[in-house]
Amino acid sequence: MERHLTPIDRALCFLDDALRLSAGVAPAASRPNPAAETPDTTFEEDQRQHVAGLMRINHTGEICAQALYAGQAVTARDPAVRDEMAHAASEEIDHLSWCAERLDELDSHTSALNPLWYAGSFAIGATAGLAGDAWSLGFLKETERQVEAHLADHLAQLPAEDRRSHAILAQMKIDEAQHAETAAAAGARDLPGPVRSAMRLASGVMKRIAYRV
To answer: Any idea what DSSP says for residue 76?
Structure first.
């Protein structure tokens, strides 16, 4: 007989995920790495550090995504919305794994502040869920649209010869756009302008710090 998880059960599961992710344990991706068949290139040191900084930002963004969806799922009222959050999070796991692999290839590291990023994002996600499912879906939609724009910026910043990082970010961008469309189709409300601006501001702070730390 299938056991239905209580809110406390779900919270404990999310806490376990938080500890694992914050400790740098990247779950295995369910899809092949888009860069698997793409040859790597040799970088000048300043190029390597710049690409690593960009990929560290993206890895941190995926840590934040996992926390946001976990927080939203905890407070979602409609099981269908909770399932939507879980589905989006499962695809973001692929992104997290791909970014971690690329950082290893670049002989670099993930952000030392990932536990902080996770905790803050979980709180934001839970608050969004408390506002109601339509607003929670709206937050998901806006998050994915902003991430899609940020990925387009990073794709433009990558050295032309870095085809491996390009392949990873290009697939991530496709997935983020699909998540936004799915949330819109599920009844997402458009967030007020000040909320969207605050989200961009918070994201900008995270990116500036994660690029280096």
So the answer is: -
**Tokens 């879980």 belong to residue:** 86
- HSE toward the beta carbon, residue 156, CA cutoff 13 A: 6
CA 121 – CA 61 distance, rounded (Å): 10
Per-residue pLDDT tens for 83-105?
Answer: 777 777 777 889 999 999 999 99
pLDDT tops 70 at residue 138: yes
Distance CA 102, CA 132 (A): 37
51-55, 85-89, 125-129, 134-138: which has the minimum mean pLDDT? 85-89
Nearest to 138 by CA among 190, 174, 65: 190
Alpha carbon distance 20, 24 (integer Å): 7
Q: Do 166 and 99 contact (CB within 8 A), yes or no?
A: no
According to DSSP, residue 78 is labeled S
93: Cβ contacts below 8 Å, ≥ 6 apart: 27, 29, 30, 66
Q: How many residues in total does the chain contain?
A: 213
